[in-house]
From TrEMBL:
<dbReference type="InterPro" id="IPR016039">
    <property type="entry name" value="Thiolase-like"/>
</dbReference>
<dbReference type="Pfam" id="PF02801">
    <property type="entry name" value="Ketoacyl-synt_C"/>
</dbReference>
<dbReference type="InterPro" id="IPR014030">
    <property type="entry name" value="Ketoacyl_synth_N"/>
</dbReference>
<comment type="similarity">
    <text>Belongs to the thiolase-like superfamily. Beta-ketoacyl-ACP synthases family.</text>
</comment>
<dbReference type="InterPro" id="IPR020841">
    <property type="entry name" value="PKS_Beta-ketoAc_synthase_dom"/>
</dbReference>
<dbReference type="Pfam" id="PF00109">
    <property type="entry name" value="ketoacyl-synt"/>
</dbReference>
<keyword id="KW-0012">Acyltransferase</keyword>
<protein>
    <submittedName>
        <fullName>Ketosynthase chain-length factor</fullName>
    </submittedName>
</protein>
<dbReference type="InterPro" id="IPR014031">
    <property type="entry name" value="Ketoacyl_synth_C"/>
</dbReference>
<dbReference type="InterPro" id="IPR000794">
    <property type="entry name" value="Beta-ketoacyl_synthase"/>
</dbReference>
<keyword id="KW-0808">Transferase</keyword>
<feature type="domain" description="Ketosynthase family 3 (KS3)">
    <location>
        <begin position="2"/>
        <end position="403"/>
    </location>
</feature>
Length: 406
């Protein structure tokens, strides 16, 4: 019998809210959380609008001895994991230590910490560089700190990837459970807003140059002009079905995953690869396309990329795509790289539990032949959701979530 993976706890640190309740309410209301970039003086840089976490200081939730060792992205992951474990009502100490692991994804790593220490190196010399520079910048810092904090000795890993990495990490955790692990902490978190890190992004030309937050991130719109980057992310508790018996909430399981690679910034040619990833996820989930009742789209807000995503969906769903709800809630709070897909998985899980699809904020319609959810939440009775993510480096990932009876 195949061991199945359930999502039992979720923790969120996002520009639009901390914790699943606040994040969910904001998404249902279509509330915007984009604003002027303030993590560093942005006057000389082309990016002015960003999704920043403004109402939560992750350092307040962490021992000061750990704060000085870690970058903001790791602090987000630690705080989100605490929320996820509380949501799951799971104390890691109650499980055998080798049966509980962690896997996270990150695109930027500890760039704020790293830039600060490099500035000290160049301006004041090597004696002024702190001892934690060697670990705080590293992409695996979040996984390492999670394993130390919670005494996790099971499978641990990190995916150095952008948007698609958030889904690939969840699939990685599900495979670990399939092969014998009892539970995993999994997700993605980012804090990309350091000048050097963002300067590396300008060359690809995909960042929105808008100065009005209400017009900055418009996926699938005729007025799309690029994406708005964000910080934050989500950590989930996933565990073997039956580990602790039936819980009080409708169970949502990780049912299928598919991934392909079609080359960096190769948007026009990515439709086939994304369609292949979707088909692979549906096949693994033993889910016919007609069972999918909502798509959480990647929504890059670059015309060629949006067209390719619509074409991929059309290749899989055919004429049914015109009545299949598609949504991009991240348009309201920004695209948090590896954290973006983890946040979408949280929302998709809540959709399956509560029967509501959040709208795409700021949307004014689309001419791409998809049923984009706009304005207000849409009721749904679906028992299966599809979450999509595409990385700027060419990764395409799809994840199918299902509830009982599907």
């Amino acid at each position: 019998m195949t061991r199945r993976t359930l999502i039992t706890g979720m923790g969120v640190i996002a520009p639009s809210g901390t914790g699943t309740d606040g994040f969910w309410r904001s998404a249902l209301e279509g509330r915007g959380a984009l604003g002027r970039l303030s993590r560093y003086p942005a006057g000389d840089y082309p990016l002015t609008v960003a999704g920043e976490v403004r109402d939560h200081d992750p350092a307040h939730a962490i021992d000061p001895r750990i704060t000085v060792q870690t970058d903001r992205f790791t602090q987000f992951a630690l705080a989100a994991a605490d929320l996820a474990l509380a949501d799951a009502r799971l104390d890691p100490a109650t499980l055998p230590p080798y049966s509980f692991g962690a896997v996270t994804a990150s695109a930027a790593g500890g760039v704020e910490f790293g830039q600060r220490e490099i500035e000290r190196l160049w301006s004041k010399g090597p004696a002024q560089v702190g001892p934690y520079q060697s670990i705080a910048w590293f992409y695996a810092a979040s996984t390492g700190q999670l394993s130390i904090r919670h005494g996790l000795k099971g499978p641990c890993g990190v995916l150095v990837a952008d948007e698609s990495g958030g889904l690939d990490a969840i699939a990685h955790a599900a495979r670990d459970i399939r092969y014998g692990t009892s539970a995993m902490l999994v997700g993605g978190a980012e804090a990309p807003f350091a000048p050097f890190s963002m300067a590396c992004q300008y060359g690809h030309g995909l960042l929105s140059d808008a100065t009005d937050p209400d017009r900055a991130y418009l996926p699938f719109s005729p007025r799309a002009r690029g994406f708005v980057p964000a910080e934050g992310g989500a950590v989930l508790v996933v565990e073997e079905e039956g580990l602790r018996g039936a819980g009080p909430r409708p169970p949502v399981r990780v049912a299928g995953h598919g991934t392909t690679h079609t080359g960096a910034l190769n948007h026009e040619q990515s439709a086939e690869g994304l369609a292949k990833a979707i088909t692979a996820a549906l096949d693994e989930a033993e889910c016919p396309p007609g069972d999918i009742g909502v798509v959480y789209a990647d929504g890059l807000a670059v015309p060629e990329a949006d067209q390719a995503e619509a074409d991929a969906l059309r290749a899989v769903f055919g004429p049914a795509l015109r009545t299949l709800p598609v949504t991009v809630p991240k348009a309201g709070y920004g695209r948090a790289y590896a954290g973006a897909a983890a946040l979408d998985v949280v929302l998709a899980t809540l959709t399956l539990r509560h029967g509501l699809i959040p709208p795409t904020p700021y949307a004014d319609g689309t001419d791409l032949g998809i049923d984009l959810v706009t304005g207000a939440p849409r009721p749904t009775g679906t028992r299966a959701a599809l979450v999509l993510a595409r990385g700027l480096a060419g990764g395409n990932s799809a994840l199918v979530l299902r509830t009982d009876g599907s």
